[in-house]
Write the structure tokens for this entry.
Amino acid sequence: MIKKIKISDIIIKFMFLLFSLAFILPIMTVFGISLTTESEIIEKGYHMIPAHIDFTAYRYVFKNPQTIINAYKVTIFYSFFGTFLSVIVMALMAYPLSRKGYKYRKPIMFYVFFTMLFSGGLIPTYILNTQYLQLGNTIWIYIFPSLASAWYIIIIRTFFQGLPPELAESAKIDGCNEWRTFFQIIMPLSKPVLATVSFLVLLGKWNDWQTSLIYIRKSELYSLQYLLQKLMDEAALIKNIMQIAPNIGDSASANVPAESTRFAMCIVATGPMLVIFPFFQKYFSKGLTVGAVKG
Amino acid sequence: MEIAKVANKKQKRKHKFLNFELTTLTLPGIIYFFIFCYLPMFGAIIAFKKYNYANGILGSKWVGLKNFKFFFSSQDAWRLTRNTVGYNFVFIILGIICAVIVALFLYEICERGWIKFFQTSMILPTFLSWVIVGYISYIVLNPNLGILNQFLRFFRFSGRDWYSDTNCWPVILTVTNIWKNVGIDSIVYYAALMGISSELYEAAEIDGANKVQQVLNISIPHLIPIITILGILKVGNIFRGDFGLFYQIPRDIGSLYNVTDVIDTYLFRGLRNGDLGITSAVGLFQSFVGLILVVATNLIVKKISPENTLF
């Protein structure tokens, strides 16, 4: 009996190991290709393990890093600042909606919830943002149109509802107004849900490429992901970026290793986050289970 | 008497003040939703107009249902609806089956270290943007350098030009979608399995039930409620294609549109080409059907299990 269980256990683990490879290997392959010489790629095709490791592609990336640094700056700014604003606005709105005694709770809840059911669609939004609000080709397009989401407000509200109502009452007796109660009592107690929502918002913003695709024409405002997409679509772009530098040194700048440089860019652009994000996995699973609670 | 009245009045005023103060907290959000969600809803009237940049939304000429007529009499209408609904339908069914199977097997592993390792690796694609997934699919599918063709050639088959072969795209898109979502979806089911009392399994074991019987009679019945809810919620969104998947993986190649074009990619192309009238008509059609589907599915959930309704 005991032996039988062990065998099935080993089989399951082996299956999962194979299965996990389907997720790990593709990412390793991107890394491998970035370390392969251009001639080897063209000769043998994409391989995970290069015949000999070669850093030429990275040398090219770091020789003229202006474009990628710029995209990093833009992405970091709108991701972190945008997430910060977003979470504050959403929490501020969720708090009154969690208070039973609040008179306008129901109408405001409906006002928020309806945005989940119906939307104007891409075209009216585009016209509003570009023609009326003049947000096109500015950094604010990354922040304001996606400031709040009904779903996250519901998640935060559900958490606030679980806090004892006596907290707010006693604060009021001590002379706190609602703003102060919110910032000094409710916020510090809500770190778990705020961390979860912040993380989800941040991930969404970090991986955003659609906003640039639709609204941004100025290359200095490209987000990191959009820059990567451009590199993929336009093979010539990578050569342009690498040749801007006047003193690139070797005369070989005409044959930039386009293939491997592209993947080196990919690693430079996503590597740091790919290392950091899995550590926040627990917030991720938490967000999912919180989301399962009825709004 | 008099004193009580005064006190009551004071309380009321205080209450009014409290409501006012709480409303000030919601103001930033209210303004946001008004500008960025409700204004575009009013702006959707351009679906009934011939939009002209110079005249703006209000100043453009009304054309009635012309935009809708044009769209529904074109071949696009059927193709887009078929692709969007068809793909989503397959994604929902296969997605649930795969995620449940993964969760069931994961539940059989006892060591926390292994579970953590498997979950983390399966969740990796969730952290990747569709652009990076696009890179990965390109590595696999590239006709000259791609891994899939190297593999085929290794076994003496001839490689194929995947980016011009419409037959294989339904499979490619389905596999990619499941690859990206199976890890994160399985976590929900795994959490549900963890909630089952272990006494049930112990009792079943004493009664002589084997593993398969335990899964069929304990695990699956416990998962049915959450499967139903998540499935029905997804059906509510069946009219929305995942723009990232359908734009980044087929790389916007025109000859593949017949099998890869969904409403969302069509909307984007319409915007880029400047066909604002027809495109906004399609967008409004999508939103409207979406609204009906969500409300309808919610009614169904209300019948099956009222505690799981969305509203």
